[in-house]
Amino acid sequence: MDTPSSPAEEALALCAENDSLRRELDLLHDALERMPRGMCAFDGNDRLLLANAHYRNLWSLPEQVTRRGSTFRQIMDATPGRETAASRNQPLPPPGTAGVRWREWQLDDGRIIEIVVSRRADGSCVALHDDVTEQRKAQERISFLARHDLLTGLPNRAVLREELERGLAANRRGESLALLCLDLDRFKPVNDTYGHAVGDALLRQVAERLRDCVRETDIVARMGGDEFAVVQRGALQPDVSTRLARRIIDVLTRPFEVDGHVVHIGTSVGVAMAPTDGEDSETLLRHADLALYRAKSDGRGQLSYFEPGMNQRVEARRGLENALREAITAQRLELAYQPRYAADDQRLLGVEALLRWNHPQRGAIAPGEFVPLAEETGLIVPIGRFVLERACRDAMAWPAHMTVAVNVSAVQFARGTLVADVTHALAESGLSARRLELEITESTMLKDPTRVLGALHTLRERGVRIAMDDFGTGYSSLSHLRSFPFDHLKIDRSFVRDVAERSDLQAIIRGIATLAQGMGMQTTAEGVETLDQQAAVRSLGCDAIQGFLLARPMPADAIGRLQAPGE
């Protein structure tokens, strides 16, 4: 049987329990004070029971309002800042019910405090407080990046679609809406010449100029690459969108100074309006893009509004592109050759290779219809490779003194494939490089002079002859002659057409022939169709003649039988 404890022993035991409880309470108090989160607790009468050090430091509250027994109202009156709108819009729990509520407070110094309040049914509660300023900034940054272009800071395609949907909803209530799509002219040469860092800096300057062009209610977005768009709401259309488009074209045509370089670009603009051109964002974007394509087809710095017929033209273009791809794969493209004769004794000097396409259903399709399409789509590169290889092979069957001329495109220079394609064609066929002549136009020289001249010098060093085609029709023909030692100038047919009757044309051709002779170049008059034209260009000093009067384009097997016109 247990012996009963004496009063003294019970007192000692009680003291021991109190000491243990006190140590536990001290440990709990120390843990609360050291918590990395602010914490406070209120009783059912909204009086403060406890508040830890992090809570006091977080809110920078006076000591007297954080003492036990302070009312919630006293604390709130001393609290700086204000509750955020997102927090104010949170629903309140029914009175007398337990639950958890999220609140958010913005202090006067800009910090954001997040509060999670756990309330019990008796009205008492515990609240945890965290400084989430950096977290909110990171979230805002992530949200911004998801909706904006990182390079320019402009809204991105996703935001543009949202704005279009909002604008279309307002449009159905009677508000006007116009969508302007634009892309930059001559941007790629800037990237290729000065590097992507300069190109990126240029895009940022373009974005700033676009922001300055529009109203506060307009939305400017970057669609990607050098493409931008503007959503214009609540204005008199089409007058206001026309003025804006003209202003944008004018502003982007002005020179840019980028990292010490003066850069010249430009833009074209396509416009679609709701609801006439589309009642949903996809249709409106597609139609504005079609209008932009039309504007660019009309030349640089142009404005075009969508028209219903554009859809049919695009479908026709797509069908032609597909057929051209099939023709390349199936090797349905052919070459014809137009002879070039000496002006004095009409000796056969060489031929020019001309591309021909006989469509299975449409028949012969003019080069002027499919060659520009091939350049736009990049198909001119495999086509150009085919022309070089076929022309070099065909020329091997002709007399050794004859040259074969092949026209080359600016796209072939831009893609960087021309030198390799020429080298391969000569090696595969066994043709001497001196028998191959490449014809380029002045416009090709203008598009990327550095790249073009580099390729031409390489080819000429390997023995290939270089001719300037359509000479005299460009803006700086003489400067091109200074920049590269051409072997051959082909005088454009526009100077030959009326040369027999016009003294000014005679003076121009005589001057070109004299200039070429002094620089060691040959000259050929193109488009000779009458005996009077033939006599005129011969008397003015042209070395060679090419045109329907002497011979029309013909198949390769007919060239070997020619010696003089008519034979």
Which structural class should the secondary elements be placed in? alpha/beta
Bulk shape: elongated
Cα distance spanning the termini: 145 Å
Radius of gyration: 40 Å
Total of helices: 22
Bin the strand percentage. 15-25%
Question: How would you characterize the largest beta sheet?
Answer: 8 strands, mixed, barrel
Give the averaged pLDDT, no decimals.
88
For the secondary structure, the number of strands is 22
Give a written overview of the molecule:
With 567 residues, the protein is of the alpha/beta class. It has 22 helices and 22 strands. It has an 8-stranded mixed barrel with strand order 14-15-17-18-19-20-21-22, surrounded by 5 helices. α21 links the parallel β21 and β22. The mean pLDDT is 88.
